[in-house]
Amino acid sequence: MAPSRSPAEWPGPDGAAERRFALFVIGDAGIEVRASLPDVRFADLGADRLSYAPARAMVAGTAVNLARCAVGYFRRVDVLAKVGDDDYTETIRRELRRIGAGDRLRVEPGVPNGVSVMLRDRPDGGGPGVRLLVVQDEPPGRRLTSDDVRAAAEGIEAADVLALDGYSLLSPVSRAALHEAARTARAAGVRVAFDLVPHDVDARLPASDVLPMLEAADLVISEVHTLARLLGRPAAAGGPHEPRSLLPALDADVAGRPLWFLRFGATSLERVLAYQRGRLLMEYSTGYTGGVRRAGFGDRMAACELYWWLSGG
User: Fold this and answer.
1) 85 backbone φψ class: left, alpha, beta (φ>0; ψ -120 to 50)
2) Domain Carbohydrate kinase PfkB spans what residues (predicted)?
3) Could you give the count of Cα atoms lying within 13 Å of 305 in the half-sphere of its Cβ?
4) Whole-angstrom Cα distance, residue 268 to residue 90?
């Protein structure tokens, strides 16, 4: 029987009482330096500035970030990512072991691992602050190949759901690998979930490079404004239900019957429309407010939504 509650209510963003299903994740893995600047706003900086603030280096990337949350829901989580060959490689492997995820990493000899820097400035007016994310140009993940995917086919075919994200679309090489993974999953009866990131993907790729993946997916997670721009549909302004104005465009512009989790609100994290070709299944609050830690919240919601979906939602 399908759960009548929203994913935020059951299983909720803090993990499931019973871990079920197998998740196979394809995405990025690397090292990220994170810092928050509680006393600085980027817009106010007019000269060099030294700030003492919370900062840390950690293993991150789209695949690792989702896996870190998903292990609280799924009985098995495997991660396929293309990584470099340096002193950080074992650190990445060790973190996957620590969180309880399976290591399907593919190492590219002689290249460094990807490194990113995430800075968030002082909140203004109660908001989350502005995030600046600097990512190493051409990280190893952009060179994940179809052969890498075929080498992991057994793991994909044994999963209940394959999770992919849009960063792999940014390179023709990893884009082909993504489609190879989706074909492998569909041929084995494995569901395909796709997270439409980066949120400015419309400025980086033509819609023709993105639409085939949307149409290959059984489930798509996206911010409303990202999809509206990608499809060339002006984002409607107005009342609290304005995201619903995008729904007819999804049916007209995207073939197939993917289930859409459409995020919207003041920071595009507060509310979700669950929609599938002509049927608005529900609208719900994620529980995100100004007092909730923003970093990782989207991955927590994605993990709980995937579990809810596989459970009959």
Assistant:
1) beta
2) 60-235
3) 28
4) 35
| 65 exposure class (CB count in 10 Å sphere: 0-12, 13-18, 19+) | buried
Q: CA–CA separation, 261 vs 310, rounded Å? A: 14
Beta strand 219-223 with 76-80 is unpaired
Using CA atoms, how far apart are residues 163 and 148, in angstroms rounded to an integer?
A: 16
Q: How far apart are CA 29 and CA 68, in angstroms?
A: 12
**Global pTM?**
0.93
Domains of the chain, CATH where assigned: 22-28+61-111+138-310 (3.40.1190.20)
Joined together, the tokens standing for residue 251 give 């049916």
Instruction: List pLDDT tens digits, range 142-178.
Output: 999 999 999 999 999 999 999 999 999 999 999 999 9
Residue 177, token pair as written in the block: 């690998």
The letter for the amino acid at 63 is A
Going by C-alpha positions, the residue among 302, 313, 262, 309 that lies closest to residue 70 is 302
**Distance (Å, whole) CA 164 – CA 169:** 10
Give SS3 for 31: strand
